[in-house]
Amino acid sequence: MGRDYFDELERVGLTEATARPLAEETWHRIGGQVIQYLEDFYRGFAPPERPYWAEREFGPPGSRRRRSSH
Known about the structure:
Blueprint: H1 16-41, H2 53-58
């Protein structure tokens, strides 16, 4: 589940090279809260498939795995 939207950042003057590290840092900082929110939000309903986009790209929240392909 998920989409990165990096290709749309050029309109506001950001490149993927600039935005990706910020996205990764943010994921590691608040990703656990995001996952908990989504679990609560979808309680009783079919939740989105996991791993979420950020989990695939950056690893579990709080980890420091960097993807070498970008």
